[in-house]
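Exam review. A common question shows you a sequence with its structure tokens and asks you to describe the fold in words. Practice with the pair below. Do the first one on your own.
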Amino acid sequence: MYKKYIKRCLDFLLSLCAIIILSPILLVLCILVRTKLGSPIFFHQERPGRHEKIFTLCKFRTMTDERDENGELLPDSMRLTRFGKFLRATSLDELPELFNILKGDMSIIGPRPLLVSYLPYYSEREKLRHSVRPGLTGLAQVSGRNFIDWDRRMEKDVEYVENLTFAMDLKVLWMTVQTVLGHSEEVAEDTNAVEGNFAEIRKKRLEETGSLEKKEAAF
């Protein structure tokens, strides 16, 4: 009952209330991002949601568009400013995702939506993470997101899906509050070597087992 009906109703009501209550903060952040980082204010990227349906994730941008003499974007580390790091460390850059939750693309609690390019590299068990809506925060994030390897992180996502209850969501929500208030980097989205390497790690593993061609054909 909770997973099928109540969770979505709570997501809608809570995200709507949060947008209304946080609207002054959202407005201030829009002004600061525009002033300090430029335009556009928001970062949009396609991500897979429930049943692998693609949706457009919305976040505050955290990097500039600085380029080298050849017009090429500078490395992420050089474009990430102190203000951008602050947005990530406090998870304020994630606030626009409240609109994704309101629309039904996402949930407050659930596996984080990763890159579309990762889809061919999940195991059959790991694909269970896409049987629910992706979340603003999730069990993997509060279990040490940037400090556990991909296999354990995916296992945490599956563990969440297999044990999805109201009590589980309350637990993850409470752990998220503790993590954010503690200014931990565990829930801070970064451009990050961890996330960026997933496809490469799995591709290498599949090549070593000789099953890459079969995986890509199936995708």
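Now try the second one, then compare your answer with the model answer below.
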Amino acid sequence: MPEVRPKKHLGQHFLTDKRIAQRITDSLLANGCDTVLEVGPGMGVLTFGLFERFGSKLKAVEVDAESVGYIRRNLPELNLIEADFLKIDLRGLSMGKFAVIGNLPYNISSQIFFRIIENRDFIPEVVAMVQREVAQRIAEKPGSRTYGILSVLLQAFYDIEYLFTVSEGCFTPPPKVKSAVIRLKRNSTKDLGCSYVMFERVVKAAFNQRRKTLRNSIRSAFSGIELSETYGTKRAEQLSVADFVGLTLEIQRLIR
């Protein structure tokens, strides 16, 4: 494996600790996956180990031209796609069922997870390194102040595991916050039993005014709606995924 040469732009902190890189690649099981897709390989600290494990099953998508050039010079056998993960047509890549892995840029990690939700029926597993607070939020259970929109939307379709914390010294340049690695494995839910578009709208409305009771936060988003006592007196962080499905069904009935 070539020596990693971290860059100091794009607002990204590059992992340089090879032991942590090995732990991350080992965390990906990829059972039943036709393809493994690495998001943002950068200088390849995960890529070379992934290629040793998965060979031609591995693809990578990278938007930065310098990183693309580096990977192509040092690992020309890799199927590397020069594109923005947030804009690329993932289904058009003909990858079958694919696992996603990556050290995700802090500033777009939430957007990447929303794309994963959109393509959930094709993505059985995700292993991602993100800011620790984001990882904790995604894995959090109802009742916590950190439980939020991503917690509900991801847990609706994935079982979440917080795997381990990564210290600031494992990166160049060192970030001001700790990172963490999480694993998402697709659960058995195919259909929530309500409109997913409405479900997402309800979840976002509830948490956008999370200090208010649902009676007030939902009324702000859906004018004229008067919730039952079952939901109206509660706050967003008190509801499980199943509760949000029930809330969505109630709202769907009320707006007909």
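Model answer, second protein: Strands lie at 14-15, 35-39, 58-62, 79-82, 98-103, 125-131, 158-166, 171-172, 179-186. The mean pLDDT is 93. Full marks require stating both points clearly.
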